Amino acid sequence: DFERALEEVRPAFGTSVETLDSYLTHGIIPCGETFEHLRQTLAMLVQQVRNSDKTPLLSVILEGPVGSGKSALASSSARQSDFPFCKVISSETMAGYSEQAKASQIIKVFEDAYKSPLSVIILDDIERLLEYVAIGPRFSNTILQALLVLVKRMPPQGHKLLVIGTTSMSDVMESMGLNEVFNVSLHVPALRVDEMVKVLRHLDCFSVMDIPKAVDLLTTFSAKVVPMKKLLLWLEMARQDVSEGQKLSLTRWEQALRELS
Amino acid sequence: DFERALEEVRPAFGTSVETLDSYLTHGIIPCGETFEHLRQTLAMLVQQVRNSDKTPLLSVILEGPVGSGKSALASSSARQSDFPFCKVISSETMAGYSEQAKASQIIKVFEDAYKSPLSVIILDDIERLLEYVAIGPRFSNTILQALLVLVKRMPPQGHKLLVIGTTSMSDVMESMGLNEVFNVSLHVPALRVDEMVKVLRHLDCFSVMDIPKAVDLLTTFSAKVVPMKKLLLWLEMARQDVSEGQKLSLTRWEQALRELS
Amino acid sequence: DFERALEEVRPAFGTSVETLDSYLTHGIIPCGETFEHLRQTLAMLVQQVRNSDKTPLLSVILEGPVGSGKSALASSSARQSDFPFCKVISSETMAGYSEQAKASQIIKVFEDAYKSPLSVIILDDIERLLEYVAIGPRFSNTILQALLVLVKRMPPQGHKLLVIGTTSMSDVMESMGLNEVFNVSLHVPALRVDEMVKVLRHLDCFSVMDIPKAVDLLTTFSAKVVPMKKLLLWLEMARQDVSEGQKLSLTRWEQALRELS
Amino acid sequence: DFERALEEVRPAFGTSVETLDSYLTHGIIPCGETFEHLRQTLAMLVQQVRNSDKTPLLSVILEGPVGSGKSALASSSARQSDFPFCKVISSETMAGYSEQAKASQIIKVFEDAYKSPLSVIILDDIERLLEYVAIGPRFSNTILQALLVLVKRMPPQGHKLLVIGTTSMSDVMESMGLNEVFNVSLHVPALRVDEMVKVLRHLDCFSVMDIPKAVDLLTTFSAKVVPMKKLLLWLEMARQDVSEGQKLSLTRWEQALRELS
Amino acid sequence: DFERALEEVRPAFGTSVETLDSYLTHGIIPCGETFEHLRQTLAMLVQQVRNSDKTPLLSVILEGPVGSGKSALASSSARQSDFPFCKVISSETMAGYSEQAKASQIIKVFEDAYKSPLSVIILDDIERLLEYVAIGPRFSNTILQALLVLVKRMPPQGHKLLVIGTTSMSDVMESMGLNEVFNVSLHVPALRVDEMVKVLRHLDCFSVMDIPKAVDLLTTFSAKVVPMKKLLLWLEMARQDVSEGQKLSLTRWEQALRELS
Amino acid sequence: DFERALEEVRPAFGTSVETLDSYLTHGIIPCGETFEHLRQTLAMLVQQVRNSDKTPLLSVILEGPVGSGKSALASSSARQSDFPFCKVISSETMAGYSEQAKASQIIKVFEDAYKSPLSVIILDDIERLLEYVAIGPRFSNTILQALLVLVKRMPPQGHKLLVIGTTSMSDVMESMGLNEVFNVSLHVPALRVDEMVKVLRHLDCFSVMDIPKAVDLLTTFSAKVVPMKKLLLWLEMARQDVSEGQKLSLTRWEQALRELS
Ligand SMILES: Nc1ncnc2c1ncn2[C@@H]1O[C@H](COP(=O)(O)OP(=O)(O)OP(=O)(O)O)[C@@H](O)[C@H]1O
Ligand SMILES: Nc1ncnc2c1ncn2[C@@H]1O[C@H](COP(=O)(O)OP(=O)(O)OP(=O)(O)O)[C@@H](O)[C@H]1O
Ligand SMILES: Nc1ncnc2c1ncn2[C@@H]1O[C@H](COP(=O)(O)OP(=O)(O)OP(=O)(O)O)[C@@H](O)[C@H]1O
Ligand SMILES: Nc1ncnc2c1ncn2[C@@H]1O[C@H](COP(=O)(O)OP(=O)(O)OP(=O)(O)O)[C@@H](O)[C@H]1O
Ligand SMILES: Nc1ncnc2c1ncn2[C@@H]1O[C@H](COP(=O)(O)OP(=O)(O)OP(=O)(O)O)[C@@H](O)[C@H]1O
Ligand SMILES: Nc1ncnc2c1ncn2[C@@H]1O[C@H](COP(=O)(O)OP(=O)(O)OP(=O)(O)O)[C@@H](O)[C@H]1O
Ligand SMILES: [Mg+2]
Ligand SMILES: [Mg+2]
Ligand SMILES: [Mg+2]
Ligand SMILES: [Mg+2]
Ligand SMILES: [Mg+2]
Ligand SMILES: [Mg+2]
């Protein structure tokens, strides 16, 4: 039965690993305790779903500012779960679909998951899945109601499911009653100064003694905390004219920051 | 006639007992007078529908915070009624349906019930059936109007019906005129300290003398009152690493509470 | 012509007497001048439609709190009119219909009525016909506009029509301009203390000397005035364990009131 | 050409005289200068359309309280015009039509009128044509836009049209820009005391010396001014038990007023 | 190419001259510098479109009170342009069309214009084209978006287009961003006292020495400034009983003003 | 592979160069550092997309007042990129399309772009693509959601994309969360006095010593800063009567400014 179930969901599985990886273009750079702790909690939830009989369904929401690394964290946990069914539900693959079509698609993924003994579903960027916009506000109630039901619905007897949601609008989730349907809620923050230092060290793009000043410049042009994704993009842009293997100078760094912000 | 009626509704009956049980994964744990009283009142309503000729239709709404045990109470009363027709109307089986389709489905269950001499219908999580969301607010007026009519509509001569609704948004029900159509309204509260003690004793997962401190920790990390469902989930998560048959230590309990809230 | 007209509308007539009776499960219990006066005014309107040539169309709205007896009063007047065409327009027979379908159904009843020389149409629970809900507020403008026209539209030459509407939301009717289209408006109140005494005497369920105290208890647990329907339901529930022919004790009455409110 | 045009529109004409008469069940009772002046102004507009070459299109709106006699005035002027094409556009003949169907119907009447050398179109109860309701407010913009265009649109060369609108919501017309498209606006008031006296005298239902007291009673139970239609209805109801040929007594009159208001 | 283009658009041209003339029933009466200046500016824009290579598209909006002569000014400029393609886009020819149908029709006219080397398009009464109503406000965003694009869209290489819009709601145009897409905006005012004098002189309907008093009466009954169209209508109505060739007396004038306002 | 990809997208490419040029009717007139810097930053982004492997997707939004030159800047950068796929997404080519059709069209362009190894897509006048209007406000959420996803969606492995958006409503973009999905945001201002001097010098339409006074007149009639497009239009209109090769006099300039503003 387990074998047949695996077979049935394999094609779906195949496509999804690629998708998981597409959220990990820069990998997971070690950047301190906060992120380490997040990864451990996610790993613990994976274990609980695998082992406990009384919790065949667990759900966790990762919320934090744009670019803080929510999708990457969700994807890397899903990959490491080694669950036979892992799927990302993202609006990227449903651009232009009608509300109804999106809802059906989402429901289908859950129903596919119910066929596997162990599954992870990532609901990526929930506000985008909901077609949320602050003016109004407007959003798809059809999709919202589907999510409110699906995240709480028990998988059939003998099947287990972990749902990981990501969002950068936790207040909107709150006002929609969406965070109430998740069992656990975790905050993914932007990087603090000490964490940026760790990242820059790891990437080895500045000479070590320039790093404090580089971080200093960054927090001056931008804000006290900087999301991981923004930091990586700016580094990439600053590095453009720098030849392979050479370090980035503080002058070039300052110029790039000035131009882009 | 009674016999034929029974036959006609049997398949529906079959599926529904399973559904009723799915709301009772942790059974009904004895936890004090308040819940005992609720169960007795529900039992009395069941008896009245069975016996009285002048009240062929009774309706009761169970309202209380998320996870307080409303669905479990409704299901267990329905099971104990032994009525030939018991059915849960839940949005879980209608995910992705259109408003119209949901309304038709709900009407159909009532019309099936009218064929049985004695019936219980559970309207579980009414705000979800109504596709309610606080932003706006938005909800399906089609479904609301159907409910406003169905809960008050007399079954045909010689047939009897008990309707049990559950909701965690009694103020919303109020503003929609929905609580006015129910004959009786009962409040299902979250657990107070003494009730949590009773539950922990019953579950036997802490050593007896640790229980007061365990409850203390719980009310510190969470709130003064804790819904039954949340308590059971947290226990399950804390218990994960603990080997079968062993008690949960207060240290592990505190750590789990810290991680999850 | 009169004969043929009668034949044409007979089937409709047949079903409707049953419907009328379904609003009279407890009959009309004598309970004082106010209600007597209401019945007389309705009877007078019936006579005027029957007799006067200059008023082929009359319309009256009965408004009052939920359960005060509006539908029962309308039905009993319609029954006593002995008009060949009597029909109740109620949302109970149209659950799940679309707005358009409801409007068409309502229009059809009026057009059927125009074929009979003398007709009564009851528009029962107008706010429900309109699919009204206070949040928004929302309602069906299609149905409202149909009613605004139909209640004022003259039946064809030689045909006469009495329209009786019922509603528990007279302020909503006002703001919709609906009460303006009715020729007469009558208020159906909840029962005052002296009226409750009369009802309890008539029903003979308490020993006579207990009645004042029974009413006292009732107004303590509930409000100063109590709608007829609520009173009858509560008596029924309190009476459950009492064996046939025996009186209800004040202790049992108090207990029932405490449990249900 | 004129002859053929006449023929083409005759059937429409046929039905419409009946319709015009249906608004004149009580005829036009002489009741003083105000109403006389209104009728003369309307007659003058009819003449101008008939005679002047530079004004092939004229439009007038009659506004005033419910039941003041607007529809009757419009109908009687249309009848007296003797124009070959006279048509009432009323929501009574379009109950249950969709917005689109109503708009098409209205447009069709105007296009039929363009075929006749001389036409009158009555837009009766414009707020009802617009499906207006104060809550929201809601109304059919489709129909409104059609009216805004039609009332201003010139008939084809050599054809002439008088449009008479009636409404009891002149402020709503104002806010919709509808009164701006009418060339002339006339106010039709409720009856003042001296006018009521004239009506009662004409109807000869009280003995002459009772009339002042009868009007006095009326203004006490109702308001300082009373719309014509209300006065006629109340008289009819009071007169019910009075045998043919006999006068109405003040006692009976007072009783009827007390019962109905 | 030019020749073939002309042929292609000729039928459209044919119908439109008639339409242009229908806006000029009273011709253009000389009434002072303001209007003269308006006509010259319009003529200059026509010349620029004809001559300049760098401005193949020009757009001008005429805004002013109801009846001030906007449509007449636009039409007369279009006629005098002698451009092979002249078309009025007016809601009068689209009564009852759906939003979509209106938008398509409007787009079609622009696309027809692109086939002619030189074109004028009049967007008459833009608020009516937009189905605008102040309550809400409501309007067709479909049509608005089409206009926002069409008024700015360059005709194809070698083709030239002048767009003249008219509106009496310049504030609404403003809030919709519509006046921003027009290159030039011109105000068409109601007539001042000296301008009314000029018009009355030209029309020769009063004896010359009565004119100052006649204008005086007019500004007393109406307002300080009077739109051209209103003035012409009132003159027509006052003149009704006056036999051909005779002057209008001040008494008759005063009486007419009193009756109509 | 590169070759085949090129072939596949060639026709699309063909049409688009023309489109790009249609935004450059007046070319790019040198007018100072601000604009030079904008062009360099855009060129740098083009280079980064071409060269860097870690940034296969970059997006930049040009925001500034109406007519400041945003579309021209975007087009000229796209032209100079020499990328095999360059396409403008503009509402001009989609007038009258339904929301759905527009969204599909936009999605299609992105999917065509994904087939080319290097692509530029210009989202011109985003508020118009969104069918935005300030009253309400209203806009197409279907299109907005498509853009929110498309601008962030990575092209497939080995393909690279630069997205350039233009808008004159940066606050609206902000409130829709649209500026957050662009990596870089650049402000395109209206011309300051010194920049207008440069433009007038370049165009050589005034005699050199008249230029300061000409700019002075312009800022007096208009505002302190003037958008490039407005300046060019006014020059064109003033120049109309001036014969080829001759300079524009200050008198003519002043007169033109007076007439048009
Ligand atoms: N420790 C880390 N945690 C998370 N992401 C990391 C870490 N180190 C590197 N990354 C990289 O940072 C990027 C984080 O981007 P990601 O898309 O996950 O952010 P996000 O919060 O989901 O953004 P958005 O709010 O736009 O959805 C990824 O490319 C990922 O590979
Ligand atoms: N005495 C009790 N009363 C109710 N439920 C109990 C009791 N003892 C144990 N339980 C268990 O507690 C859980 C209560 O969850 P239930 O779904 O009924 O809550 P709910 O109030 O319906 O939650 P929600 O608001 O999410 O619908 C069930 O798993 C049930 O088996
Ligand atoms: N004098 C009376 N007048 C009215 N109803 C009476 C009277 N005596 C007994 N009854 C009974 O009381 C009940 C009144 O209920 P009814 O449905 O008419 O109330 P209602 O005002 O229409 O309620 P709702 O607001 O829910 O529509 C009926 O069962 C009727 O038989
Ligand atoms: N002088 C009069 N003017 C108008 N109506 C009169 C007059 N005398 C008698 N009537 C009668 O009064 C009644 C007036 O009713 P009518 O329907 O015209 O009023 P209304 O203002 O149109 O009402 P509503 O606001 O309901 O449409 C008619 O039956 C008409 O025959
Ligand atoms: N100098 C003038 N300028 C404009 N119109 C004139 C002039 N002299 C006479 N007229 C006449 O005045 C009338 C002006 O009406 P027109 O329909 O153009 O006004 P409008 O401003 O478009 O009105 P609306 O706001 O109702 O659309 C026309 O009949 C036209 O022939
Ligand atoms: N340095 C310059 N930068 C930009 N545009 C210039 C420059 N020099 C000349 N132009 C010309 O100015 C005009 C700018 O108009 P463009 O349509 O690009 O403005 P826009 O900001 O996109 O306007 P809109 O807000 O209406 O979309 C073009 O015709 C362009 O050829
Ligand atoms: Mg993400
Ligand atoms: Mg529940
Ligand atoms: Mg009722
Ligand atoms: Mg009327
Ligand atoms: Mg006009
Ligand atoms: Mg632009």
Observed structural traits:
homohexamer; 261 residues; alpha/beta; Rossmann fold; 2 domains; 11 helices; 5 strands; 11% strand; binds adenosine-5'-triphosphate; binds magnesium ion
Can you characterise this structure?
The first copy, chain A, has 261 residues and is an alpha/beta fold. Chain A is built from eleven helices and five strands; from the N terminus they run H-H-E-H-E-H-E-H-H-E-H-E-H-H-H-H. Chain A has helices at residues 2-22, 33-51, 70-81, 99-113, 126-129, 141-150, 170-175, 193-203, 211-221, 228-238, 250-260, and strands spanning 57-63, 85-89, 118-123, 160-167, 184-187. Chain A has a five-stranded parallel sheet with strand order 2-3-4-1-5, with helices on both faces. In chain A, helix 4 (99-113) links the parallel strand 2 (85-89) and strand 3 (118-123). In chain A, helix 9 packs parallel to helix 11 (250-260). The interface between A and B is medium-sized, with 31 and 23 residues. Bound molecules: adenosine-5'-triphosphate (6 copies) and magnesium ion (6 copies). The site of one magnesium ion (MG) has 5 residues of chain D, from helix 3.
